[in-house]
Design a protein that fits this description.
Layout: H1 19-25, H2 27-54, H3 58-77, E1 86-89, E2 109-112, E3 120-124, E4 129-132, H4 138-145, E5 150-152, H5 163-168, H6 176-179, E6 186-192, E7 198-201, H7 208-213, E8 223-233, E9 237-246, H8 249-258, E10 276-283, E11 286-295, H9 297-300, H10 318-323, H11 325-328, E12 331-336, H12 337-341, H13 352-355, H14 362-368, H15 376-381, H16 385-394, E13 396-403, H17 407-417, E14 423-431, E15 457-467, H18 470-473, H19 480-493, E16 497-498, H20 508-514, H21 518-526, H22 536-540, H23 547-560
Parallel strand pairs: 1-2
Antiparallel strand pairs: 3-4, 4-8, 5-8, 6-7, 6-8, 9-11, 9-12, 10-11, 10-14, 13-15, 13-16, 14-15
Length: 570
């Protein structure tokens, strides 16, 4: 049984109201009259640029790509290691999709412009591989591939997420219980190393160590300039089943596992495992589990079937639509595949409710829903330092990667310490690899034969915790930094991982307790990234990074270098 309990009916001290509380209550004015219009203009200009690129032949795009790579190499050759700072991309800090402040760019740094790298270079239907540049985003990719009845094997839900961010960081989607994380679907990486050398890394060539080390490295081993990614065939619709579940948190976690993981261990049997999986926990006693299968247009249009053209701007936000299953019971509908992929974009999961409290109302959706979503970069650009720090202290945005069998324990911890709802659940594999990258399955997991596991991969779940904690909603004190530290320690103790786009309180020691640094540091030395690129810890670390702090950390790494470290990995 779950030990989760409803909040005790005790009197708590009230949190002192600050000026920033007042400013936030009227932030919707800036969003309506500035952020949304400029977001629309930005998206439209990018769309026109994408259409212009798509009119070019793949051969022409590849030629332009090769020229742009030469410019990157030339730029790196201009760097004076003794005078210039560490290498960073030229993207402004507020452009990055994530909650970190990107304060590492406040220190002196040497900029390399990668803004031209946003083209789809090739769709190879024979190899079933897409070759793309790092700034290609998910909306662009689905717009091109789905009309061909193709898709990336893992296509993250938000339109704005880029290939580079999903490879250098992490990406997960409803098909990850089959294909793993976004980086697990990569076939090859084209990388410009610190010395300007351009290499193509695959899992079985001479740069295989680099291939496995780049995911989660946050661009600190080299500059990614293109990637070849696995494609899969898809149909025009997704047949989606919404199943309400009730019980305590442990029972909800078990119902979630049962929705996609056969108890007989036959995890690779397509007749027993759905192609899409997602769960949403709406409170400590109820949730909705969704499973999907691709379906043809003919099947979707059969008499009696319900088609939900979810792409229309006036449609209810997806998480609220799914929540109706708690009242109406289990139901099935057919959603156009591209609409399904981007179902959380318009509302930014449920964060849109905080940005525009009335954004989910019919009148707003009908009149202005076509302007949604606000571009995250513009939301960040219009934040003051005070508002940004307020969000860090009174708001939670974390993706927690935990073993499937520990999902119930994690849900109870989040309920007890944070009380944030809704909660997103998305299963994914972590593969047993010939090397140990930054994230890896529990040693010996295959011996336990737990639900969802196979001999070659352990089933994990991304637990998305996004919203305002219950204490803050009630006007009670909440120490966001301390709760974040406690959460990180729980993850370390339970072989979990924290997405690096989020705010972290990890010390360097605890960062490397959570993640494995052996392959990463080996590649840092072998490919001469030390002294050229900032280490992943300092890039992820919360707070301002002074030039002195960063350089001292790099110097310490350089002094630890040994002759053996330069030898190739076995």
């Amino acid at each position: 049984m779950s030990d989760a309990k409803a909040p005790a009916a005790t009197v708590h001290p009230r949190r002192k109201i600050q000026l920033v509380d007042f400013l936030l209550s009227f932030r919707w004015i800036i969003v309506i009259f500035f952020v949304l219009p400029f977001s629309f203009l930005y998206y439209f200009s990018i769309y026109l640029g994408d259409l212009k690129s798509e009119k070019k032949s793949y051969k022409q795009r590849q030629m332009e790509h090769d020229e742009n790579v030469k410019e990157v190499v030339k730029r790196l050759e201009q760097r004076n290691a003794e005078k210039d700072g560490l290498v960073c991309t030229a993207r402004p800090p507020w452009v990055v999709v994530g909650m970190r402040n990107v304060d590492y760019k406040r220190a002196r740094h040497f900029e390399v412009d990668l803004s031209k790298f946003r083209n789809i270079l090739d769709i190879d239907t024979e190899r079933m591989v897409a070759k793309v540049e790092p700034l290609v985003n998910m909306g662009q990719m689905s717009r091109v591939a789905i009309p061909m009845n193709l898709s990336l094997a893992v296509l993250a839900e938000l339109d704005d997420l880029t290939v580079g961010g999903l490879i250098n960081g992490f990406g997960v989607e409803g098909s990850s219980h089959i294909f793993g994380l976004f980086s697990d679907t990569v076939v090859a990486l084209e990388v410009v190393l610190a010395d300007g050398k351009v290499v193509r890394a695959t899992k079985d060539n001479e740069y295989s160590d680099l291939f496995y080390a780049i995911p989660w490295s946050q661009g600190t081993l080299g500059l990614l300039v293109s990637a070849e990614i696995k494609l899969i065939p898809v149909d025009q619709y997704v047949k989606l089943t919404y199943k309400p579940v009730r019980g305590n948190l442990k029972e909800l976690a078990q119902a979630y596992a049962d929705s996609f993981a056969p108890k007989d261990g036959d995890q690779d049997n397509p007749s027993k495992v759905p192609e899409m999986v997602e769960g949403m926990i709406y409170g400590p006693t109820e949730g909705v589990m969704m499973t999907g299968m691709y379906a043809s247009r003919n099947e979707a249009k059969r008499r009696g079937n319900v088609i939900n053209n979810y792409g229309w701007w006036f449609k209810p936000w997806f998480y609220q639509h799914a929540q109706t299953a708690l009242k109406r019971g289990e139901f099935v509908e057919y959603i156009p595949t591209r609409d399904y992929y981007h179902r959380h974009t318009r509302s930014l999961y449920w964060e849109g409710k905080l940005i525009l409290p009335f954004g989910d109302q019919f009148w707003f959706r009908f009149l202005l829903g076509w302007l949604m979503p606000p571009k995250i970069a513009l939301l960040k650009a219009t934040q003051s330092e005070a508002i940004r720090n307020y969000y860090h202290d009174h708001h939670v945005i974390q993706d927690l990667l935990v073993p499937l069998y520990k999902v119930g324990d994690c849900l109870e911890w989040v309920h007890r310490e944070m009380e944030v709802y809704p909660i997103w659940l998305c299963p994914h594999r972590i593969y047993k690899l010939p090397v140990r990258p930054m994230i890896y399955p529990e040693p010996g997991f295959e011996k336990h034969k737990r639900q969802g596991d196979t001999e070659y991969a352990q089933m994990y779940t991304d637990i998305g915790v996004y919203y305002v904690p219950g204490a803050v909603l009630r006007g009670e004190p909440f120490d966001g930094s301390e709760k974040c530290r406690q959460l990180e320690l729980w993850l370390i103790e339970n072989h979990g991982f924290q997405a690096q786009y989020a705010v972290t309180e990890l010390t360097e020691k605890n960062f490397w307790r959570m993640f494995d640094n052996s392959l990463y540091e080996q590649c840092r030395r072998k490919y001469k990234a030390i002294g050229t690129f900032m280490s992943v810890y300092y890039k992820s670390k919360k707070g301002r990074k002074t030039e002195k702090e960063v350089q001292e950390a790099e110097q310490e790494k350089a002094e630890q270098e040994t002759p053996e470290a330069d030898e190739p990995a076995n």
